[in-house]
Every structure is written in structure tokens, then in C-alpha cells.
Model the fold of this input.
Amino acid sequence: MTENDFLPGDYQNSPEKGKATWKAPSNIALVKYWGKRPVQMPANPSISLTLDVCATRTSVSFEKRDNKEGFSFDLFFEGNPKADFKPKIYTFLERIEMYLPFLKEYHFTIETSNSFPHSSGIASSASGMAALSLCLMDIERQLDPAMDQASFFTKASYLARLGSGSACRSIKGNLVQWGKHGNIPESSDAYGIEYPFEVNPVFRSYCDTILLVHKGQKQVSSTVGHQLMHAHPYAKNRFQQAFDHLDKLKPVLASGDLGEFIKLVESEALTLHAMMMTSMPYFILMKPDTLEIINKIWAYRKETKTPVCFTLDAGANVHLLYPSSVKKKVLNFIEDELAEHCENGQYIHDQVGEGAIKINT
Ligand code: DP6
Done:
């Protein structure tokens, strides 16, 4: 598909007002997206598990307006007006206007809330931009009811990417791949696709416990981190490694070989942070407790042979990944050994989910 495929034709309907509500999940990358080129195209392909519990619910009400200058919208986060989110949304609307030409014809009221605590250090841009894109696509479908399901979701992912790269992986369920890869048919830099190869059932119910090590603001945003990959001395090799990791993951995802899965996933997490530590300027997002947890996971795995591993986002929190079959003993391990390294002992249990859903209000 090309950019032109996302430009709509004439709309059949022109409703005076209406509303759309969607809930979109967060996702956790196994092979990481880190580095991009304009506009929001990834430097390398990535793949993620779609989560279930951590999600953003967004409603967009729309009403015809007379003045068609600029965009007009109010924004409420968890029930309260949220002025500091508005510039990001405004930029997003500017970027997507050519694909949704009705945007200036309506005044929008956007109401959004997260299932996870606001200052948990869990990035809400993926689930937030995915939920907002789905609401806007829902409105487009009200204008163009003939739109088919596949185009609806592909375009939602395309728009979400323009809001935040990883958001394009928060539309569909289970495993989502984003970024052109010669060995993955239909893969695209412009949107995420449901992983097209065999996936062992063990991964369909995989668990992710998010250990909230540090809930404060990060010193360096993802946006800045992505930019630092431009002049990065190891960028070329890193991007190639991500391509190779996707190739290596294919038989692992099919067979359910957790030993190999763990190696790839932990290597990806540490490489992501190694890129941060070797950029100029360099930075460290891990905290002492992040390392304590990693060491305890390694010791526990060696001692008990339980297939638990970790991955990291661009922050200090640790995602503990394990199959649902070992959930009971891993929960004891978390309580006994890991919770003490979390801020206020907090963690969130999540698992692989089925993707975004429409909420009928
Ligand atoms: C480390 O999607 O947050 O989580 O495109 O600038 O919004 P922007 O970046 P973002 O980057 C996420 C990076 C990551 C890895 C990943 O999810 O693949």
C-alpha cells in the first residue's frame, strides 16, 4: 500500500454530530524500534506483544462548526481539562489532516483516561495515540460507511504511527510487526501488521508483569533518544541486528523454544539501553533497582529453570515476561524478591491481549 491509498474519496454522509469510543492497549516490544527518519518511519523493523490490562480509553464527540480555521477541540484527561497535552494533539491533527479531510469541519471533545496510574512511568503514548486514531477512523467510517474492516484497521495503524511510532502496534492483538522486512510479506514502514507466521500457543497467553521501579519523569524522552541514533557510531550495526533478530525469532515463535526466545528478548532490551549509553550525549535510564531485578531474574532462572526473562522500554521499569503455565510460582518470586525493588512495592500484572475494542456507549 502507498500513501495515496490512505487518502479518502468523497464522503457519502455529513452528520451534524456524533461520538466514537475506543479502548486501545499498550504493547511491549520484543525487538525494539529505536531510531527513525521523517515522518515517523522506523530505522528498523520491530515486533511487540499487545497487552491487555494497560490500556487507554478515549471518546471523541464531534459537532459541525461554522468557522473552519485551524482545528478546534477540547481535551479532558481523567475528567479534567489538560492543556499541556494539546500541542501534541494539534501537531498530530496537522500531520493527519490530509488523510482525514473532515477534521476542520467539526469541533471535537476528546475525553481520555488510562487504566494504569498516571505517574506510573508507563508510556501512554502508544495506547493513547492508538485509541485516538481509532476514534477518528470511527468518525470517518460514519462519513463513509462502505469502508471495509481491513482498510479501517490498517489506516488506524497508519494514523497512530504519525502520532507515536510504537502506537501503530497497539491496534491489533497478540503479536504485531512494524517496519519493512524483506522476509516478512506485507510488512511496511507505514503501519503495523498482525504477525503473519506461525505462533506457538504459549505466546498467546504470555504474561508481562510490569515492575514499577521508577515512576517519575524520565531525564530523556524517547523523541530525543530516537534523534540521537542519527549520528550514533553503532547505528548501522544496531539496525542490521534488529533485522537479523526478526529472522531468528521466526522459528522460535513457531516452536515455542523459550531458551532462544529469552536470549533474543534480553539481548534486545540491553542493546536498546546500550544505544542510550553510547550516544552523544549519553544517558542512563536504568536505576540501581533495575539492575538488582535483572540480577535476581538471572539467579532465579538459573536456580529454578523457570523460563522468566525481562525486557525494558525507554525507562527504568522492568517487564517480566513468562508463560502463563508458571504464573503461580513467578508471582511468589515477585512478591518474595522483586517487589522490594519497586517504588512503593507497586507492579501491574498484564498479559497478551486481543487488540483494541470499540466501546458502545
Ligand atoms: C523504547 O513510539 O515512544 O518503547 O515515535 O517518538 O513517539 P515516538 O517514540 P515511541 O518509541 C518507543 C521506543 C521503545 C521501543 C519500542 O516500543 O519499540
